[in-house]
Design brief:
With 93 residues, this protein is an all-alpha fold. It contains 4 helices and no strands.
Amino acid sequence: MKKILAVLLTGILIGVLLIGVYDLPAFGKPDHPANNYVAQRYVQKGVEETGALNIVTGIILDYRAFDTFGESIVLFTAAVVVLTVLKKEDERM
């Protein structure tokens, strides 16, 4: 009975995901949400507004600086936690 229920739920999940994929816009179309005015502005005025010679560097360090800073804080915190958990206790105690 459990196997039948698992197969049924898996089939329903696959159906829901396929319906969601069917409603996605076609890749590469000009009206695709990824092709909005923000990306065009980054490409057209990125060098002028940021002063960076590399457009990727300008986007990461100027337009998305707070996001990048937040990501680096999360990575630093994770590294500190891992080092704290894995730290060996002093054997003299």
